[in-house]
Amino acid sequence: MAIDYEAWGETYLREAEAIRERLESRRRGGARASYTDAEKAWMRAMFEIYLECSAVGQLLKRRGKRRIAS
C-alpha cells in the first residue's frame, strides 16, 4: 500500500489553516490586554501547533512530489 504524501500534507495544511483562522478570530474578538495568562498560554500553544502543522504539511507535500518525479 502506497502512502499518498501529498494528500497527507494537504490534511496538515488544512488543519494549520483552521488553527490560524481560530487564532485570528480570537484576536479580533478581544483586546489583547484583557487576555488572562491561561488564554495567552493557550494562544501560544495553538500558534506552535499551527507552525508545526504548516511545516509538516509542506514537508509531506514536497516528499510526495519527489516521489512522483522519481
Q: Supply the number of helical segments.
A: 2
Global shape? elongated
Query: SSE order in H/E notation?
Result: HH
Structural class computed from helices and strand pairing: mainly alpha
Oligomer: single chain
CA radius of gyration is 16 Å
- Helix share, percent: over 70%
User: Overall pLDDT, averaged?
Assistant: 91
Strand content: under 5%
Taken together, the total number of domains comes to: 1
**In terms of per-residue confidence, which ranges show pLDDT below 50 for 5 or more consecutive residues?**
none
Molecular structure report:
With 70 residues, the protein is mainly α. It has helices at residues 5-29, 37-69. The model has no long low-confidence stretch (mean pLDDT 91). It has one domain (5-69). The two termini are 17 Å apart. Helix 1 packs antiparallel against helix 2 (37-69). The longest helix is centred in the C-terminal third of the chain and has 33 residues, at 37-69.
Topology:
Blueprint: H1 5-29, H2 37-69
How is this structure best summarized?
The protein is mostly helical and 70 residues long. It contains two helices and no strands. Helix 1 runs antiparallel to helix 2.
Entry keywords:
70 residues; 0% strand; single chain; 83% helix
